[in-house]
Amino acid sequence: MRGGAMSSLDTRAAGASVQPPLSQAVGYVVVVVLGLVIALANRIAMMVITKVLKKTTGEDNEKTEMFMTANRSVRTGLTASAVISSWLWTTAILGASFVGYDYGVAGPFWFAAGCSPMIVFFALIGISCKRKIPDAHTSLEVVRIRYGRVAHIVFMTLCLINNIFACANMLLGASAVISAITGMHIIAATFLLPVGVTVYTFVGGIKATFLTDYFHTAIILIIACYFTIKAFTFEEVGSIGGLYDLVQAAAKRHPVSGNHDGTYLTMTSKGAILFAILHICSNFGLVIMDTSYFIKAFSASPSSVVPGYTIGGIAYFAIPWALGTIMSSLALGLENRPVFPTYPRRMTSTEVSNGLVLPYAAIAIAGKGGAAAVLLITFMAVTSTLSAQVIAVSSILSFDVYREYIHRSASDRDIIRASHFGVIFFAAFSAGFSTMLHYVGIDLGWTLYMLGVVTCPGIFPMAFTILWRRQSKAAAILAPILGMATGIAVWLGTAQHFYGAVSVATTGEILPCVYGTVASAFSPILYSVVITLFRSQRYDWADFRKEKLGLDRVDSDSDATVDERQVEHPASTTTTTSLSDPRELKRWGRIAAFWSVATFLGHWVIWPLPMYGSQYVFGRGFFSAWVVVGIIWLWITMLVAIFYPILDGGIQQITQVYRALRGRKDTPSVPSPSITDGSHEVTKVDEKSGGGSNSAGWI
Fold first, then answer.
1. Cα–Cα 20 to 30 A to 150, which of 40, 380, 433, 645?
2. Are 402 and 255 in contact (CB under 8 A)?
3. pTM recorded for the entire structure
4. Rounded-to-10 torsion of CA 491, 494, 495, 498
5. Based on the structure, what is the number of domains in the chain?
6. Paired residues of 269 in beta bridges
């Protein structure tokens, strides 16, 4: 169904179904009981943490600024961990293995290379937002302020489409895996997975997602690292050289169409390079049009955005690369052995497209323990990433719909209530939408391939909104609409041209999806530039600051109240302006631009393209080095995600809280003289004081 290597899969007989290694009871315990336990534990923990922090540092989760943006105080370590967590989709964990099964070693590499440059690039977008509109809560507020309500509605629709398909992509893959491992009904899994997410996101807001994501990410990475050890202690593999021999033998049994010499051990893969183009465009759309990434950027302190996203993006590369390479190689090499779940047949195209390469490989090397581990990481991944999607949509419904079009003078309590409604509504809607897709025959593979067609039209108009002052209002409104129409037309037209019909099967092939995604992503550049030429705009970035967006300042009774609160709990007030010197923010912008270019060149040009052009086939030594570097990188990623947040502010804030609970108060901060930033003044807080330590705090 996927073109290239996947076309050969279509000819396979369905074969006997695989018996789930775990019982349905285990599935329900993990999805329902564990989900509710995590939610309940999170509720208790967040209640305790919220009470303690309110008492000791002034953080109040009943305030919208705290609920939605964590007072814009998240430090580099937790930002990097949150970035890694944000990309730990079930799609990444399962998809990297299935493209490795299809295309060989090139598949997981290009999967990773399609993610990390986009994550690092977002550092540039994030710091630009910090410079130009530091009080914003969502990217859509930026659009509304610059272009007005019509553009706001257009981009709001595009962002919601992005979130809907992203959630469907996650739920389809996760529910299929849970069903295959436990026998749990796939629709039950689809509806029950969002339950725990809804509860803990409902209670804790964005800070709950930061903290819960941290623990979920730690568990996922520990299990991923376990698989890198277990793979080579399994007796039928034995070593990296043994795995190399197994993959070589698999290529002789089933040569890969489109790969040099039909081998899995080459970067010269036509299917993989097409997937790479498709994947990087799709991920560009997912990042730019997903308000959850903007929320986390707004939540980070100004000095943490660039290093947090850069470290997180580079560290993340190892997860799909290393895990996908090892697990897909295991599946290919052990597929003809009795230990493999589908033995004596190969995996069917449906099994591959449902993302079952990883779980079947895990079952082969670790039995029921491997199945349980995959079940756990699938559950952790889908709940972690789904929480970010849910709060992103709730932010749209509360700030961009309720506050803007229903209740302009909404208070903190009103907006929190609207956010809670948004959390519940979207969780239920995403489950229902995923169920509909399942019943029309759409799976993880189909959504992974076509995602960019619907997520990419707003990429450049949105980026131009923040980075290009000349884009006109008409261009911002029309370019994404025309881009969406162009992308869909090219997608369906090429499906008809290449395969003679427009159906679920043909629209899921790689060629129509590549053409449609590229058209959807890049045609808006032409539309925007041409429309802007007729009547260009020269937007004054200072206009962004004229609209007051910080709710805590709006709701304060008087300036005296604010001043008193600043003295008692400096961190409790909303940072309505950046706490960094504008020149410092500009320097961070240059650093972000450098790392964006460097990451793209490294992962897309310098490293892979010479190997592609030379038609290099991996030897035993090179394959061993390839795998070893991937494993080391993965373990470093685990250390970054788990320990960096603790070392970077965690110990400091825990100490501060402990001292406050013991009755020892730090010296209250005294606001230093203000610095001028454009048309308004910025109050600079001494970060070495008690309040400053919280503004750079971990929890």
1. 433
2. no
3. 0.83
4. -160
5. 1
6. 259
CA angle 277, 282, 283 (to 5 degrees): 105
Q: What is the DSSP letter of 675?
A: E
Q: What angle do CA 323, 329, 335 make, to 5 degrees?
A: 130
**Which residue type, as a one-letter code, is found at position 542?**
A
Structural domain boundaries enclosing 156: 5-695
How far is 524 from 528, CA to CA, in rounded Å? 6
* Nearest alpha-carbon partner for 403 in 421, 428, 381: 421
Look up residue 224 and give its two tokens: 């991923």
The CATH number given to whatever domain includes residue 243 is 1.20.1730.10
Burial class, 141, CB count within 10 angstroms (exposed 0-12 / middle 13-18 / buried 19+): buried
Q: Output the six-digit token pair for 568.
A: 């008692």
Kindly give the interhelix angle for 473-499 and 139-147, rounded to the nearest 10 degrees: 120
Distance from first CA to last CA of the chain, Å, rounded?
46
Tally of CB atoms within 10 A around 559: 9
As a whole number of angstroms, the distance between CA 553 and CA 23 comes to 54
Instruction: Render pLDDT for 490-530 as a digit per residue (tens, 0 to 9).
Output: 999 999 999 999 999 999 999 999 999 999 999 999 999 99
Question: Residue 348: what are its φ and ψ, rounded to 5°?
Answer: -80, 165
CA 269, CA 107: separation in Å to the nearest integer? 9
What pLDDT does residue 599 have? 92
Cβ–Cβ < 8 Å for 671, 665? no
Spatial neighbors of 226 by CB under 8 A, at least 6 apart, are: 373
Q: Is 451 helix (H, G, I), strand (E, B) or coil?
A: helix
Alpha helices in 57-185 (DSSP H): 64-69, 76-86, 90-103, 106-113, 116-132, 139-147, 149-182
Geometric angle at alpha carbon 134, from 133 and 139, rounded to 5°: 60
9: pLDDT confidence band, cut at 50, 70 and 90? very low
